[in-house]
């Protein structure tokens, strides 16, 4: 099938599934076999040495896992893709495979908490030089990149205040110094944003979030230039953080409705953001789809939809958050995001729990902030739920 002629919703369903499966099955079989047998030693040798395609051992590659990798590869317009047991495995394997002693990485202060820990705690102990720049200060970012670096690691929109960074602008700066550009595309999903088309070399996802979409399986994926993906794949083979067939099946199944879910979540989130913005008990709303959002113009130029994630602060303190959140009926008060059901929580107990109040303030995270991951429930019900809870304040 020529996927270049298909729209993303079609690709999400058919990619990796165009060949007949075992016994004519029309859904990918879950192949839990650890190993793959050969009658012909020459054929086995060719597969083992990469001269022929096939499978040898499931820590390296697996047919069910391959279906999921193909979906992401084609949706992101990538030459190659490989997968991992979690999103953090994708990020850490990528950084550890591509960096080393004496190398320099430039990234943002606002990256996902786990990525931040790699930059602040683990990579420096391997003598990797790490610079974390102000997330929205593009002049500072360009200046840091121009000093020379090996890797630029970006995330947009960011957690939890949905800051936007200009991928094309920073990828251009990175190209000038020969640095590899990696973008965490978890919040946007390949439906709303394709970093490789904006000049990035690699894109990573926590598949645990929107790709899976049901909060019932964990995974991670890397897609991009074949040579770079291969390098990370060789490291992951040995590092061992491989995705298993069962979660790969769940994620690939979830991805069949990716476009439907994201279109719904894009539309609902915008309506909810507009409702909250106009509410007297709400102090501020952080959603890139609002014209008042600082990164709106960049978001409009690089995203085809603004996503299902937002955050908002109450006119009040953390005590008001404690009163407000339990009044919501149509949310799970929990960490994570990107599921069919709406999920909410304060950064103080979720993404930024390790930081002090002063550190959160420095990142522009008010104590009355609530992160809200819009599900696919009917938007009128979600707005009524928010309205009822806000009225009680
Ligand atoms: C959740 C998340 C991760 C980590 O993914 P896991 O699957 O939990 O390991 C990385 N980046 C972003 C933006 C995330 O939201």
From TrEMBL:
PROSITE patterns: CYS_MET_METAB_PP. CDD domains: CGS_like (cd00614). The keyword Transmembrane does not apply. Signal peptide: none annotated. One of its GO terms (molecular function) is pyridoxal phosphate binding. InterPro entries: Cys/Met-Metab_PyrdxlP-dep_enz, Cys_met_metab_PP, PyrdxlP-dep_Trfase, PyrdxlP-dep_Trfase_major, PyrdxlP-dep_Trfase_small. One of its GO terms (biological process) is methionine biosynthetic process. The modification N6-(pyridoxal phosphate)lysine is found at residue 209. Its cofactor is pyridoxal 5'-phosphate. Keywords: Pyridoxal phosphate. GO terms for cellular component: cytoplasm. Belongs to the trans-sulfuration enzymes family. This is Cystathionine gamma-synthase family protein. NCBIfam families: PRK08249.1. It holds the Pfam family Cys_Met_Meta_PP. It comes from the Bacteria. SUPFAM superfamilies: PLP-dependent transferases. It comes from Spirosoma validum.
């Amino acid at each position: 099938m020529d996927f270049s002629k298909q729209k993303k919703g079609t690709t999400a369903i058919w990619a990796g599934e165009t060949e007949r499966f075992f016994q004519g099955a029309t859904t990918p079989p879950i192949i839990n076999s650890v190993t793959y047998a050969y009658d012909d030693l020459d054929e086995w040798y060719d597969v083992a040495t990469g001269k022929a395609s096939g499978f040898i051992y499931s820590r390296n590659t697996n047919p069910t896992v391959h279906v999921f990798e193909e979906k992401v590869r084609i949706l992101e317009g990538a030459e190659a893709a490989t997968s991992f047991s979690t999103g953090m495995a994708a990020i850490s394997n990528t950084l550890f495979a591509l960096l080393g002693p004496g190398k320099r990485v430039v990234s943002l202060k606002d990256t996902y908490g786990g990525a931040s820990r790699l930059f602040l705690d683990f990579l420096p102990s391997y003598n990797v030089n790490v610079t974390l720049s102000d997330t929205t200060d593009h002049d500072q970012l360009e200046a840091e990149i121009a000093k020379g670096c090996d890797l630029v690691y970006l995330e947009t929109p960011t957690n939890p205040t949905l800051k936007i960074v200009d991928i094309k602008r920073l990828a251009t700066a990175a190209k000038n110094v020969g640095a590899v550009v990696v973008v965490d595309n978890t919040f946007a999903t390949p439906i709303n944003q394709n970093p490789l088309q904006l000049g990035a070399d690699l894109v990573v996802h926590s598949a645990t979030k929107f790709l899976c979409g049901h909060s019932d399986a964990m995974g991670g994926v890397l897609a991009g230039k074949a040579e770079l993906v291969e390098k990370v794949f060789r490291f992951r083979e040995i590092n061992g953080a491989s995705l298993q067939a069962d979660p790969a099946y769940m994620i690939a199944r979830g991805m069949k409705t990716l476009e439907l879910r994201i279109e719904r979540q894009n539309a609902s989130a915008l309506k909810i953001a507009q409702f909250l913005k106009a509410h007297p008990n709400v102090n501020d709303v952080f959603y890139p789809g609002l014209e008042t959002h600082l990164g709106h113009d960049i978001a409009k130029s690089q995203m085809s939809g603004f996503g299902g994630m937002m955050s908002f602060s109450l006119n009040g303190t953390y005590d008001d958050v404690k009163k407000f959140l339990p009044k919501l009926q149509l949310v799970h008060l929990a960490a994570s995001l990107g599921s069919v059901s709406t999920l909410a929580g304060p950064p103080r107990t979720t993404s930024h729990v390790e930081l002090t109040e002063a550190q959160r303030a420095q990142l522009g995270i008010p104590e009355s902030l609530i992160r809200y991951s819009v599900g696919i429930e009917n938007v009128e019900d979600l707005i009524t739920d928010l309205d009822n809870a806000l009225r009680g304040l």
